Amino acid sequence: MPSGLEVADIFRRHGEAYRRAHDAHLGRVERRVMSTIELCRTAALGGHTETCADCGLVRCAYNSCRNRHCPKCQGQVRAEWLAARQAELLPVPYFHVVFTLPAPVAEIAFQNKATVYAILFRTAAETLRTIAADPKQLGAEIGLVAVLHTWGQNLHHHPHVHCVVPGGGPSLDGARWVACRPGFFLPVRVLSRLFRRLFLDALRAAFAAGELGFFGELAGLAQPTAFSRHLRELRRVEWVVYAKPPFGGPKQVLAYLGRYTHRIAIANSRLLSVTDTAVAFRWKDYRHHGKSKVMTLAADEFIRRFLLHTLPDGFHRIRHYGFLANGHRADRLAVCRLLLDLPQAVAEPAPDTVPPHQPERCPGCGGVMVMLAVLAPAAPPRPSFWNDTS
């Protein structure tokens, strides 16, 4: 049974003590994430009163913070994003490929989030597109959706990119559709080695351009000789690229994307208890075949781990590449449909014609809730940068 606990409850109970204890090391983004989650759907953000048209129940409904790190604020954003993706699906197998950074690189990534996460996105996509374009492999232009996750089930820092890729694409001359072999996309060992090379080359270039910073235990890497030695060591490490079996069809792809695209580090449903000193939550131990276990952390450590996964302002954690890239997606998909001998999809609705939110339902009888009055915020209006939904 769900405990009813929320990350917001943990922040309200332990957040102020955490801010005092870590004042010198807590950044602006982390402070804002904590504050917005604490205030989400409370009187501080305002809202409205509403009544049930059937049974007459009256209740207050408070506004959401809309921060992308908030467990309560992803549902509607996810629904709207998936609705926009519906027309982009092709009737072909889809594959799931995961690119994971080794722990020594993850340490560098944590201290240089925007730079290294961007390199992770770019090189994972380049790896897939390069190997797919090789006539010895597929010989096609592919498209993909990539989603950044930075956590494992235990909330440790574990940056990796999930890529959802149609199993084929237009031939390099654009004359025909090239399908992958049944049940097989691209060889993961080849992907892994190219990914390692491209990533480390890009990391070296970022270092040369002065785009990387190091502190704490990594401070020594600021020296060029130490950094070069570190890169040589990383070239001898096996980098993990994992390809899962193909999805059953487009509906399964959408269901999968719905679970992954707007996920955050931990859902409220996994929380079990919070005390004056500790937080307990469920997690899956994939080293033991995904067995469900309970982890109990000191409240301070739970908050620290949660905040590991905050993203820099304006950083996009969902990106599109190849024939699904934003700049030419509609045109390239039209070509794909033509090569697959499919009817052309209906154009996406303009932003102002996105279907409205579903009406709220009465918790007592299921009737439609009707707004009665607007409630002004009990706190000063939020700065616009709080609506961190990218």
Walk me through what this model shows.
The protein is an alpha+beta fold and 390 residues long. The chain has 2 domains: 91 residues, no CATH class; 216 residues, Replication Protein E1, Chain: A (3-Layer(aba) Sandwich), CATH 3.40.1310. Helices cover 34% and strands 20% of the residues. It has 10 helices and 13 strands. The longest helix is centred in the N-terminal third of the chain and has 21 residues. The relative contact order is 0.21. About 4% of the residues have low confidence.
Q: Give, in order, the helices and strands.
A: HHEEHEHHEEEEHHEHEEEHEHE
Task: Describe the strand arrangement of the main beta sheet, using strand numbers.
Answer: 8-3-5-4-12
* Percent of residues in β-strands: 15-25%
Alpha-beta classification: alpha+beta
Q: How many structural domains in the coordinates?
A: 2
Distance between the termini: 32 Å
Overall CATH class of the largest domain = Alpha Beta
Judging by the overall fold, what is the CATH architecture of the largest domain? 3-Layer(aba) Sandwich
Q: Write down the CATH topology of the largest domain.
A: Replication Protein E1, Chain: A
Global Rg? 23 Å
Binned, the helix content reads: 25-40%
pLDDT average, as an integer?
90
Secondary-structure map:
Blueprint: H1 7-21, H2 28-39, E1 47-52, E2 58-62, H3 75-86, E3 94-100, H4 103-111, H5 113-133, E4 143-151, E5 157-166, E6 168-170, E7 177-179, H6 188-208, H7 224-234, E8 241-244, H8 250-260, E9 271-274, E10 278-285, E11 291-298, H9 299-307, E12 318-322, H10 329-339, E13 369-375
